[in-house]
Amino acid sequence: QLQLVESGGGLVQPGGSLRLSCTGSGFDSDYYALGWFRQAPGKEREGVACISSGDDSTRYSDSVKGRFTILRGSAKNTWWLQMNSLKSEDTGTYYCASGYWRVLDPQQYDDWGQGTQVTVSS
After folding, report:
1. What proportions of the chain, in percent to the nearest 5, are helix, strand and coil?
2. What value does the mean pLDDT of the chain take?
3. What is the number of alpha carbons within 13 Å of residue 14 lying toward its C-beta?
4. Cα separation of 42 and 72, whole Å?
5. Which positions ≥6 away from 105 have C-beta within 8 Å?
């Protein structure tokens, strides 16, 4: 069974940086998409970045493009979300998820981690 675990959330000031980590186990295929999503209180879950395991191609939402980077971590089956120039509107619970297509639609992802909280505030 596929399991995903996020870590790295916390409190950061506006303009600061944070790196989230997602570690997966139990993959039954070498080809999949890994996505990062976030959900703020009272809002729908939205995709912010995703990466394809096959060629490391990426996709970003317009709201984070140029500020966030999704990339493979140093350990096997680990992915990072490097978040720079953070804004208060980036606050939310961040989830990683695995699916087949490299898209930002949460409904296309099947397996989810438990989430990690990111708060951007002075």
Report:
1. 5, 50, 45
2. 95
3. 5
4. 31
5. 47
